[in-house]
Amino acid sequence: MSTFPQPDSRPDPRDRPARLTVGVVGAGRVGPVLAAALQLAGHRPVAVSGVSDASRRRAARLLPDVPLTTPAQVLERADLVLLTVPDDALPGLVEGLVDTGSVRPGQLLVHTSGRYGAKVLDPALRAGALPLALHPAMTFAGTPVDVQRLAGCSFGITAPEELRLAAEALVIEMGGEPEWIAEEARPLYHAALALGANHLVTLVAEAMELLRAAGVEAPDRMLGPLLGAALDNALRSGDAALTGPVARGDAGTVAAHVAELRRHAPQTVAGYLAMARATADRALAHGLLKPELAEDLLGVLADRPAARPGPGGSGGTEGDDLR
User: Fold this and answer.
1) Per the record, which residues fall in region Disordered (predicted)?
2) Whole-model pTM?
3) CA distance linking residue 28 with residue 38, whole number of Å
């Protein structure tokens, strides 16, 4: 294996030859992007495997002139192999590559699954490979724009201690920031990212649909500044950034929301109630929601019709705004 620079040393790739040949097994949205980033850092992509037409087009766009081959041929040609397949397919892929003798001693095997740490690569480790789990905390579209988005992106790293410098160097060369995650903490780490990113997309998509139903012509333009400010405030201040009728204890407004959602978009009611209950719990725990206002609110969130106050019910403040 070639020598890696220290994490704080980033020589200009134009001043040195490529140091590692790179292969990609699984040309989804992530693998070709990471290979392209490694190419910018001076490494040399040499092979990529992909099955679907979309994968092949993606590989051709991001890694032009890199041949499409079988997974076994990728491992035969590359010093560093990116295993970028769906989580559920990863253990079987690793075992299959080992069983067919495709894994070479000293070869770097890197998977990008958030769910798994390095132990999923144990079969390859026993075959002499060097295992790294490098998960970019980023959403990918599989386009060249993604390469630029890696700048400052955190990577959840899990690897043997002796490979720590190699893992950090690879992440830094791709423009990322290393963040070490313990093997046993990987599922929780991944759940946290899914909760924040995947569910955010669902929430935003539902909000845009509701705004369209309310007659808003450009819901994206309306939501952009609002959601941008909310995200910035949440990242800066955590629960102190909670606003709106739930945090205020405005049970009447929340009851009106539930009634309108039930009438116009019943599929969103369960999600609204679940998120509102979680918001109420956090607001109570942090002293934002007054206990004397919580009873009516929690009655509404339990979705018990008898507990719903009327339009002039308790908990109201100055108007129905987004505070």
Assistant:
1) 303-323
2) 0.81
3) 16
Distances (CA, A) of 223 to 90, 253, 269: 38, 20, 20
Per-residue tokens: 53? 């037409």
Name the CA radius of gyration of the chain, rounded.
25
Nearest of 86, 79, 126 to residue 106 by alpha carbon: 79
* 14: exposed, middle or buried (Cβ count in 10 Å: 0-12, 13-18, 19+): exposed
Distances (CA, A) of 177 to 130, 136, 157, 184, 295: 21, 9, 10, 21, 45
CA separation for the pair 90, 75 (Å, rounded): 15
Give the burial class of 13: count Cβ atoms within 10 A of its Cβ; 0-12 exposed, 13-18 middle, 19 or more buried: middle
Q: In the chain, where do the E strands start and end? A: 21-25, 44-49, 80-83, 108-111, 130-136, 154-158, 177-180
Task: Summarize pLDDT for 168-191 with one digit per residue, the tens.
Answer: 999 999 999 999 999 999 999 999
Written as one letter, the residue type at 264 is: H
At residue 303, the pLDDT reads 67
pLDDT tens digit string along 60-119? 999 999 999 999 999 999 999 999 999 999 999 999 999 999 999 999 999 999 999 999
Residues contacting residue 202 through CB under 8 Å, at least 6 positions apart: 271
**For 13-181, which CATH superfamily applies?**
NAD(P)-binding Rossmann-like Domain (3.40.50.720)
Is residue 211 exposed (0-12), middle (13-18) or buried (19+ Cβ within 10 Å)? middle
Q: What is the mean pLDDT of the chain?
A: 89
Task: For 147-210, give the DSSP string.
Answer: HHHTTT-EEEEE--GGGHHHHHHHHHHTT-EEEE--GGGHHHHHHHHIIIIIHHHHHHHHHHHH
